[in-house]
Amino acid sequence: MRPIFEATLVNRVFGDPGVLIDLKFERRAILFDIGDVSGLPTRKLLRVSDVFVSHTHMDHFAGFDHLLRVCLGRDTGVCLYGPERFIAQLEHKLAAYTWNLVQNYETDFVIIAHELGADGQVQRAKFRSRTGFLREELPMVQAEGGVLLESSAFKVRTIPLEHHGMASLAFAFEEGTHINVWKSRLEELGLPTGPWLTKLKEQVRAGAPDDALIRVHWRTREGARDEMLALGDLKARVLEFVPGQKVCYVTDVADIPQNRHALAGFLHGADTLFIEAVFLNEDRSHAQRKAHLTAEAAGEIARATGVRAAVPFHFSPRYLGREEELRREFEQAWKGH
Ligand SMILES: [Zn+2]
Ligand SMILES: [Zn+2]
User: Fold this and answer.
1) What is the distance between the alpha carbons of residues 336 and 213, in angstroms, rounded to a whole number?
2) Is residue 131's pLDDT more than 70?
3) Which one, 133, 181, 186, 202, has least CB within 10 Å?
4) If you measure from the C-alpha of residue 251 to the centroid of ligand 1, how many angstroms do you get, rounded to a whole number?
5) Sign for the pseudo-dihedral over CA of 242, 261, 323, 313
6) In this structure, which ligand is nearest to the CA of 57?
7) Could you give the C-alpha distances from 226 to 192, 201, 204, 223, 229, in angstroms and in order?
8) Alpha helix positions (H), the chain
9) Residue 2 confidence (pLDDT)
10) Whether the predicted pLDDT of 140 surpasses 70
11) For residue 166, which ligand has an atom nearest its CA?
12) Measured between alpha carbons, how far is 169 from 167 in angstroms, rounded to an integer?
């Protein structure tokens, strides 16, 4: 199957944390955290539609200005998501610049900010370049099951974890099921390809009943043909269902039982896990004070979840030149060798 998206670290392991999920075919990308993003090519930043911020320590949020600068003239806006106090902090960032020239832009660049409260309610606000990014309130929404964003192709879910007496959000990108068409089966059944297949897939995704009828209209050398076929029958005979991938992002979390317990459920079924591994186990008391994971703790969390691929990141600069030790400790705890 062709890869539908690509998930990669924004920086090397000693750089600011962040993961870019690039959905090339949708001409769209999402970011988990936005620290230093100056290493990302502009063409990729221009695709960013949604930014999920774990918490607002500088190494996770300082790159917002860079994104804004690159995207300001773009005709599609950007959505941001963060923990408590996020909207006020974003408002302050936007208020730190003078916007008297933005009226000259042809486009109105719109930012929609989402702030997840402790009660699962999501406060929202809009900031538009035309008004100099004055805050406009939007109605609250509820993050059902922690889902912050849902599109036809994927959803992004979150849980708050404990980090220094505040929340750090972990994120899961969950692709929808892929629906493929067996071309050879179509031929066997004497059915054409065409836009009707897109409609069929749409109906299946929308949960239409099996006895719903699908109209197929096409031309052959013998003339026009028209058939009404049962959706359930088509589903069984010409469609293939491939489960989507799940990619998780976990950073800046204390190694406490309550976080480990919450992660066990949240990471279930993940294909790829990006997880911080900040300190070596020999410095675990320091890790505790800083409310970060050691490489060993990160490896154990990956192991408990049974993920297929795990990528450690957010290494402390105190280990510059000792990257291999962190990787080894992580691998050992993850794979047991
Ligand atoms: Zn950090
Ligand atoms: Zn932090």
Assistant:
1) 54
2) yes
3) 202
4) 7
5) positive
6) 2
7) 11, 19, 21, 10, 10
8) 42-45, 58-61, 64-71, 86-95, 183-188, 195-205, 231-238, 257-266, 284-290, 295-305, 323-335
9) 54
10) yes
11) 2
12) 6
